[in-house]
Amino acid sequence: GAGVSQSPSNKVTEKGKDVELRCDPISGHTALYWYRQSLGQGLEFLIYFQGNSAPDKSGLPSDRFSAERTGGSVSTLTIQRTQQEDSAVYLCASSLIFGYEQYFGPGTRLTVT
Amino acid sequence: AQSVTQLDSQVPVFEEAPVELRCNYSSSVSVYLFWYVQYPNQGLQLLLKYLSGSTLVKGINGFEAEFNKSQTSFHLRKPSVHISDTAEYFCAVTTYEGSQGNLIFGKGTKLSVKP
Q1: What are the residues whose beta carbons fall under 8 Å from the beta carbon of B70, sequence distance 6 or more?
Q2: Which residues of B touch A101 (CB under 8 A)?
Q3: Which residue of B has its CA nearest to A91?
Q4: Which of A31, A45, A106 sits opposite B43 (nearest CB)?
Q5: Nearest by CB to A101, which of B49, B100, B104?
Q6: What residues pair up with A67 in beta bridges, in sequence order?
Q7: How many other CB atoms sit within 10 Å of the CB of residue B59?
Q8: How far is residue A39 from each of residues A21, A44, A101, B31, measured CA to CA in Å?
Q9: pLDDT grade for A1, boundaries at 50, 70 and 90
Q10: What is the Rg, in whole angstroms, of the alpha carbon atoms belonging to chain A?
Q11: CA of B61, closest CA in chain A: separation in Å?
Q12: B49 touching A, CB under 8 A?
């Protein structure tokens, strides 16, 4: 079946612009996770959803970052007023239910110029 | 809090040789352990997992790992590697106990298989 999909695969944006990254989880998966992968920081956890709810947003790097999930399916990660340090690969993962193994999408490579 | 240490950032090895990628973790509660592989410009693919039961876990592509609670290790092994195994390998831990269920990753080990 279809895996986790993410769009766009690549995004180049100017400093100060807003960007939206999309994640489409595996059908039927109720838990969804966002991670960030960068050279300096490795793989960092950002936020997770159980259904449409994100119980803890403390992993988000700053208040410029926000995420939502609608209909228990698609999720959007929004970065406002992008900075160069936001440049990274943003990975989305989903699992059947909270606590099961996570399946990752191909990622969105964000470059802020 | 949990943490993961991958002791080798790069491991070069010749084709058909055995390989071991080392992973140690730190946690005050019971953990679940995973190995993921990342090929260039791709996402993470689950290689194998330890949740409970037998401490020797077999995964895809001929890889296996052994959970050693006393040494807090979860080393990944393959008896004979192929060129196609060249990739970056990540060890990860989670607890699912009063946590967010997120994975804590090591820094990764780049496996380079040479002909």
Answers
A1: none
A2: 34, 46, 49
A3: B43
A4: A106
A5: B49
A6: A77
A7: 17
A8: 20, 11, 25, 26
A9: low
A10: 13
A11: 17
A12: yes
Torsional class of B90: left (φ above 0), alpha (ψ -120 to 50), beta (otherwise): beta
The Cα B24–Cα B11 span in angstroms is 16
pLDDT at A37 (0 to 100): 94
Over 80: is that where the pLDDT of A87 sits?
yes
| Residue-level pLDDT at B111 | 97
Mean pLDDT across the stretch A42-68?
A: 90
More confident residue, B36 or A39: B36
Q: State the average pLDDT over residues B39-48.
A: 90
Over residues B60-80, mean pLDDT: 96
Q: Residue A15 has what DSSP assignment?
A: T
β-pairing verdict for B19-21 and B44-50: unpaired
B101/A101 touch (CB, cutoff 8 Å), yes or no: no
CA-CA-CA-CA torsion sign (A46, B47, A29, A106):
positive
For the purposes of burial, counting CB atoms within 10 Å of the CB of B60, is it exposed (0-12), middle (13-18) or buried (19 or more)? exposed
- Give the separation between CA A4 and CA B63, rounded to whole angstroms: 24
Q: Which amino acid is at B20?
A: E
Q: Please report which residue ranges of A30-98 form alpha helices under DSSP H.
A: none
- The answer for B 50-89 residues in CB contact with A (under 8 A) is none
Is residue B23 within 8 Å of B4, Cβ to Cβ? yes
Question: In this model, does residue B31 exceed pLDDT 80?
Answer: yes
Please report the residues numbered 89 through 108 in chain B whose beta carbons come closer than 8 angstroms to any beta carbon of chain A.
90, 96, 100-108
